[in-house]
Write a structure and sequence with these properties.
Pfam families: Thymidylate_kin. With about 200 residues, the protein is of the alpha/beta class. The chain has a single domain, classed as 3-Layer(aba) Sandwich (Rossmann fold), CATH 3.40.50.300. The chain is built from 9 helices and 5 strands, in the order E-H-E-H-H-H-E-H-H-E-H-H-E-H. The protein has helices spanning about 15-25, 40-50, 60-70, 75-80, 95-105, 110-120, 135-150, 165-180, 190-199, and strands at about 1-5, 30, 90, 130-135, 185-190. It has a 5-stranded parallel β-sheet with strand order 2-3-1-4-5, with helices on both faces.
Amino acid sequence: MIIAIEGIDGAGKNTLVRAIREQAGVPVDVLAFPRYEVSAPAQLAAEALHGRMGDLTDSAYAMATLFALDRHGAREQLLPYVDSGRIILLDRYVASNAAYSAARLQDDAVMDWVHDLEFDRLGLPLPDLQVLLATEPVTAAERAISREAQDTSRERDRYETDSGLQQRTYDAYQRLAQRGWAGRWIVTTDPADILQELR
């Protein structure tokens, strides 16, 4: 199974992934996107988000393409989980590109473009389950600020410091879940809900 944990910056995705992994009772692998440590497209996106790539961030399509190429670089790593007894939890996946792009452009049509780019053109496997961690934007922002204060390596980027973008992204995620975009969704803040789905 491929299970994607989605949510805005500061929602608590990493904490939720750790809790599920500890409580699952079966081996669970984990992969987080973007893969900043190993992926050139992800590193370029990070540079752009911290203002070091000129006007690259001005294009929602350019940024979405970099994040898509990062995931494409992990395609062979993901394929063994398709139709197998193995489980992988993804801290962000394709829906994050759809939500942030729609929020930036304020146009949901880009959601279909992201679906075509990542699942059809780049051949990424569809997730078996997508979990929207529905932490309110105000709470998520407080967490992101606290995280930055405690860890100097976690400086917030342009997306994280834009409260309007975070709210619009939260709303876009809700619409993706309601549409059943790219498969099955649950909306929760409780690890027990996800563990029940796993069982």
